[in-house]
């Protein structure tokens, strides 16, 4: 089995990676993927909250 990041032989202590560095690279890729979801953007959430308050204060 080889490291999925760089293809070197896997180190048992860092399986399935060859080193701490490659494990960190994989973790960073995974986190970047989840942070790409638009609803996770703090500015979008703030804007949505302001619009919700404005809509709630208007009499219908
Ligand atoms: Zn590696």
From TrEMBL:
Domain of life of the native organism: Bacteria
Record GO biological process: regulation of DNA-templated transcription
GO molecular function per UniProt: DNA topoisomerase type II (double strand cut, ATP-hydrolyzing) inhibitor activity; zinc ion binding
SUPFAM superfamilies to which the protein is assigned, alphabetical: Glucocorticoid receptor-like (DNA-binding domain) (SSF57716)
Keywords annotated in UniProt: Metal-binding, Zinc
Positions bound to Zn(2+): 3, 6, 18, 22
UniProt xrefs under Pfam families: YacG (PF03884)
Note on how the cofactor is bound: Binds 1 zinc ion.
InterPro entries (UniProt xref): DNA_gyrase_inhibitor_YacG (IPR005584), Znf_NHR/GATA (IPR013088)
Residue ranges, annotated region (Disordered): 35-60
Cofactor(s) the protein requires to work: Zn(2+)
Quaternary context: Interacts with GyrB.
Family membership: Belongs to the DNA gyrase inhibitor YacG family.
Protein purpose: Inhibits all the catalytic activities of DNA gyrase by preventing its interaction with DNA. Acts by binding directly to the C-terminal domain of GyrB, which probably disrupts DNA binding by the gyrase.
PANTHER family per the UniProt record, alphabetical: DNA GYRASE INHIBITOR YACG
Protein name from the UniProt record: DNA gyrase inhibitor YacG
Gene: yacG
């Amino acid at each position: 089995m080889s490291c999925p990041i760089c293809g070197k032989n896997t180190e048992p202590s860092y399986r399935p990676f060859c080193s701490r560095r490659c494990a960190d690279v994989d973790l960073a890729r995974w986190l970047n993927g989840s942070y790409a979801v638009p609803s996770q953007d703090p500015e979008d959430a703030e804007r949505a909250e302001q619009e919700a308050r404005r809509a709630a204060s208007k009499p219908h």
